[in-house]
Amino acid sequence: MKFENLIPVSGGFIHAEGEPVDKNGLERVAVSFGPPHGPVTVRQVEDGIHDAYLSGYDAIIFCGFAFDAAAQDVKHPKIKVFYSHIRPDVLVGDLLKTTSASQLFTVFGEPDIEIKRKKNEYEVILKGVDIYDPLTGEVYSGSGDRIAAWFIDTDYDKRSFCVSQAFFPDSKAWDKLKRALKASIDEDKFELLTSTRSLPFKSGKEKRIAVKVIDHRGNEVMVVREIG
Given this model, what pLDDT does residue 15 score? Predict the structure, then answer.
């Protein structure tokens, strides 16, 4: 989304407002930024949407380095809600190159996963994630094998994400390591490490799993699913 102007706003959970170049029914858009060292929370989203509605905005964009999974489930019948991930590079300040390709904000959807059940065990298949390209304005689907890393919490309690399984699908990133290890590498185990399919696991006490995906820019997004 490109803005004609973006003006700082003080007070509350709305930090800026602007007018989009391509309106598409959106005259005024609010922007809310998350903390530098933490996720955008459910409270921030709920309060931000409430403030945006009372102030007459058509939409609100929440920008953050990470998002609580439940925060992305908050909806409003009259306010459009968008989530934009900020690249961690922005924290290094003046060390960044100011080129047209240096996009610090990336909008992408929740991971596309499939859960398979075999008797009393489950497997998760990572199919990919939808990513918005700010240079072209197009949304494309990134396949699972192009993801930098993905993790599963097989017993997610909605408070803290604990890694139960970890995978790094981009096999090209491991080429140097494979050459360095040479004959000492176990190809079968290495293939499991780069898989987009999890190892079998049993349902935990919470009956809930969370899958966190990290792209090559360091952005992360998470999806939560209930299981039997």
Answer: 95
- 141 and 188 share one domain: yes
pTM for this prediction: 0.59
User: Of 25-29, 44-48, 189-193, which one has max mean pLDDT?
Assistant: 44-48
Domain extent for 196: 111-228
| CATH code of the domain covering residue 32 | 3.40.1340.10
Statement: residue 97 has pLDDT above 70: no
Please report where in the chains the tokens 């209930």 appear, as a residue: 226
Residues 140 and 224 in one domain: yes
